[in-house]
Amino acid sequence: MSVNKGHTGQDYEEAFQRLGNNYAVAREFGVNESTVRRARNNLKVDPAIKAGMQAIGTDMVPVLGWAKSSVPDENGLTYSYMLKPDAANDDIIDRIRSAVEGIAPALPVDPPGLVDDDLMTLYPIADAHVGMMAWGIETGEDYDTKIAVDRLTNWVGKCVASSPPSKTAIVLGVGDLLHADDQTNMTPRSKHALDVDTRHFKTIDMTIAAIGSCIEAARVKHETVLVRILPGNHDMHAYMAILFSLFERYREDARVIVQKEPGEFFAHEFGKVLIAAHHGDKAKAQNMVLHLADRYPEMWGRTRHRFLFTGHLHHHKSQDIGGVQWEQLRAVTSKDAYATAHGYTARSEMQAVTYHRERGEVSRVKVAS
C-alpha cells in the first residue's frame, strides 16, 4: 500500500476509473475515503472559483460561500457575490454507493418446498412517505416514521400470507417511499415545506430495515424475488440509498435480484404478461402507454396482458388505454395536514396482484387501514 504524500486529484481520478469506487481507491493509496472524494470533487470545480479560494490561501472549496467585491460601482457601492459550485449528480450516486459498500450479505434462506411456476405475484408499494408527521387531531389519523415502517412490514406480511405460492415475486417501490429527500425537509423541485417526524438519517435507516423485512417475508414464500425501487418527486435522490443498500445486502443471494438500474420506468415480462410502473409525476397515463410501446417494442409484441401502475396522487383510478390496463394506486401513507386542508379523501391501501403467465391477472389481495 503506497503512502498518501504527493498524490493529486488526477491520480485518484485515474485510479477510480480503474477500480470503480472511492473506497477501493482509498485502500490503494492508504488514505481516507473522504480525502479521495474531496480531491475528485475539486477536479469538477469551476477554475475561477478554485483560483479565488487559492488566492485566500486554501485549496478547499465551500459548498456555499460569499465573496465581497473591493471595487465600488458608479454609485460608490460594493456588492457580495454568492459562490455555489454545482453538485454533480454522479457525485451523489458515488457517495451513496461508497457509504453502503461493505454491508454484510443476508444469510441464506432455504427456498420454499412448493411453488407454482406459472404464477407471479406483484407487491407494489406506492407512496409510503416514511418520515412524514401527521397529527391525528388535525388530520384524523396519526402518522410518523414508526407507524409507517410498522404498516409496511405488517401489510406486506399480510399480502404475502394471503397470496398464492407463486414461484416469482416482485417487490416494487412505486416512488415516494421516503417523505423527504434530504435534511432540508422540502420537496426537491417545488421547495414545498414538509411535515417531518425525525432526522433524515434515522428515516433512511428505518426504511431500509422495513423494506428488508418485506423482502424476507417474500423470499420465504417465493423462490425468486425481484426488487426494484423507483424514485418519486419527494425522494428523487434519497431513494438510491435504499436501493443501493438492498443491492449490497442481497448481493450473494441468487434468489433475490435487486435491480440497481438508473431510470424512472420499470418494465418486466412474464410469459404473455407485461408489468410496467412509473411514479406518475411526469406524464399523463396516455403518454406513458405510448412511451411503453415505443421503448419496449419487442416486449410489447410478445405480450397480450399489459399492466401499468402509477402512484403520486394517492387515490385510486383505473382505465383501459390502448391495450394496457392502467391503475393509479392508493397510497400506503395517511393524509398529512396539506392533504386534509385541501379536502382530499383518499384511503390508505396496499395490495398484491397475482398473474398467470398465459391468462394474465388471476387473483388480488388488499389490505387497508
Entry keywords:
2 domains; 369 residues; six-stranded mixed beta sheet; Purple Acid Phosphatase, chain A, domain 2; single chain; alpha/beta; 13 strands
CATH architecture annotation name of the largest domain: 4-Layer Sandwich
Task: Profile the largest sheet.
Answer: 6 strands, mixed
Helicity level: 25-40%
Distance between the termini: 57 Å
CATH H-tier superfamily of the largest domain: Metallo-dependent phosphatases
The multimeric state of the shown protein is single chain
Largest sheet, spatial ordering of strands? 6-5-4-3-12-13
Question: Number of helical runs?
Answer: 12
Instruction: Name the beta content range.
Output: 15-25%
CATH topology category name of the largest domain:
Purple Acid Phosphatase, chain A, domain 2
Query: Any idea what the radius of gyration is?
Result: 24 Å
How many β-strand stretches? 13
- What is the 3D form? globular
List segments where confidence is low: pLDDT < 50 over at least 5 consecutive residues.
none
